């Protein structure tokens, strides 16, 4: 069986933590920021963990991360 290729789009979006989980950025922080309050923007700026429902898909896209 040939080696699996990493999907480069996914490799740039996800990062593995020390415990083996995957980090991701939150959405809604690109434009139309004037109507969002500071507390919401600060929360959106923090990284989140990938949900367990999507974990197998992320692992398949990034086998060597």
Description:
The chain is α+β, with helices and mostly antiparallel strands and 65 residues long. It has one domain: Factor Xa Inhibitor, CATH 4.10.410. The chain contains 3 helices and 3 strands, in the order αββαβα. It has a 3-stranded antiparallel sheet with strand order 1-2-3. Strand 1 (15-16) and strand 2 form a beta hairpin. The protein starts with 7 loop residues before the first helix and ends with a helix.
The count of β-strands is 3
How much of the sequence lies in strands comes to: 5-15%
Poorly predicted residue ranges: none
Major β-sheet, in short? 3 strands, antiparallel
Overall tally of structural domains: 1
Instruction: Give the CATH level 1 class.
Output: Few Secondary Structures
Mean pLDDT metric: 96
Looking at the structure, the CATH topology is Factor Xa Inhibitor
Q: Which H/E pattern describes the elements? A: HEEHEH
Gap between N and C termini? 20 Å
Shape verdict: elongated
Relative helix content: 25-40%
How many helices? The count is 3
The structure class reads: alpha+beta
Q: Measured on Cα atoms, how large is the radius of gyration?
A: 15 Å
CATH architecture descriptor: Irregular
Adjacency order of strands in the biggest sheet: 1-2-3
Layout of secondary structure:
Layout: H1 8-13, E1 15-16, E2 22-24, H2 38-45, E3 48-49, H3 55-61
Antiparallel strand pairs: 1-2, 2-3
